[in-house]
Design brief:
4-stranded antiparallel β-sheet; globular; 2 helices; 2 domains; 195 residues
């Protein structure tokens, strides 16, 4: 008898709690819900932007910046041989306002999601035409605009916050590079404005 009574009370409590939760949701308007979902200021991995103008080409990168927090990053939090969003939250994006050559390969001016396929000795950087996606969960290879290969470089100093930066080439105003630095690893790819 006691177990039956306990089950009835538990079921009723669960039902009341779920009704209360649904009621609370309805007090927010659709716009308010969207604002809460889009509030990037309260994220554990904040949204960062890097931008620079290289030979008239406005290059902008938007990414979520995760922290090391004492974790094993490469081959741990970021597994080897799996597509990674190159950051946190939404997939990182890069915008070129001019056609470019990335590592010598042509890429049209546009906004792209940027993914990586890391391994211990070589990375594949992927530019996807699907620029609006969360993480790499719905990554689709058929949407690739370009894939390039780069070598990771391990350094002595620890970079706690993941950063993506744009670095102008001091010898050529139409060239630059994009560098990822997180934990003790750096990956860089070069680009040049198409003439």
């Amino acid at each position: 008898m006691h177990s039956k009574l306990f089950y009835v009370i538990l079921t009723a409590g669960t039902l009341l709690f779920s009704c209360k939760q649904n009621g609370d949701e309805k007090t927010l308007s659709k716009d308010e819900k969207q604002e809460v979902m889009q509030n990037k200021n309260n994220r554990v991995s904040p949204t960062e932007t890097a931008s620079d103008t290289i030979g008239g080409n406005e290059v902008t990168i938007v990414y979520g910046s995760p922290r090391v927090k004492g974790r094993v990053i490469w081959g741990g939090l970021v597994p080897y041989n799996e597509v990674w969003r190159m950051g946190a939250n939404e997939a990182s994006t890069i915008q070129f306002t001019k056609d470019v050559f990335v590592q010598g390969q042509p890429l049209k001016k546009d906004t792209y999601s940027v993914f990586a396929l890391p391994s211990e000795n070589e990375w594949t950087i992927i530019f996807s035409t699907n620029e609006k996606q969360w993480g790499a969960f719905k990554y689709n290879e058929s949407e690739d605009a370009l894939r390039i290969k780069v070598k990771p470089v391990f350094v002595d100093s620890l970079q706690e916050n993941m950063t993506l930066s744009i670095e102008p080439d001091p010898a050529n105003p139409n060239k630059g590079s994009v560098k990822l630095w997180w934990e003790k690893l750096q990956v860089k790819f070069d680009f040049e404005n198409a003439q």
